């Protein structure tokens, strides 16, 4: 498999993310993968797989729509929308958050992934008590 094929497999994996498909991670990620997101930093394929399983366990569903995908010289950039539903957020209604991922390859597998997204838009603004406080803070910061 080459880097483009791995990238295609990653995009396909995220388009229908669930616990059943986690066995595919071994074909996408290097054993020494480092995955960084706004929640934490995860080192190693087994740790990443466990992290995904824990997150997915609490979601009704989660999938990604990849709008842009660029690969150049062992580095890739994905621009995406995450569509998810959690029973404790907005009464389980579908939610969306925009984000991007910076990827680096080690051979033909991904060895580094940093995900960028707005944790406030994803979580904090969906919790009634916090959302009111965040709205007030945003209002104060506007010119």
UniProtKB/TrEMBL annotation:
Protein origin, superkingdom = Bacteria
Which Pfam families has this protein been placed in? SnoaL_2
Q: Where is the SnoaL-like domain?
A: 13-111
Q: Which InterPro entries match?
A: NTF2-like_dom_sf, SnoaL-like
The protein's name in its UniProt record: Nuclear transport factor 2 family protein
Q: What is the lineage of its organism?
A: Bacteria, Pseudomonadati, Pseudomonadota, Gammaproteobacteria, Enterobacterales
């Amino acid at each position: 498999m080459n880097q483009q094929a791995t990238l295609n497999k990653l995009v396909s994996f995220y388009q229908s993310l669930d616990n059943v498909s986690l066995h595919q991670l071994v074909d996408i990620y290097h054993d020494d993968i480092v995955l960084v997101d706004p929640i934490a930093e995860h080192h190693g394929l087994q740790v990443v797989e466990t992290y995904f399983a824990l997150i997915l366990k609490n979601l009704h569903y989660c999938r990604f729509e990849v709008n842009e995908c660029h690969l150049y010289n062992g580095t890739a950039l994905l621009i995406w929308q995450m569509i998810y539903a959690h029973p404790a957020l907005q009464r389980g209604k579908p939610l969306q958050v925009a984000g991007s991922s910076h990827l680096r390859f080690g051979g033909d597998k991904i060895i580094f992934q940093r995900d960028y997204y707005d944790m406030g838009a994803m979580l904090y603004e969906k919790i009634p008590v916090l959302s009111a406080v965040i709205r007030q803070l945003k209002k104060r910061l506007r010119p």
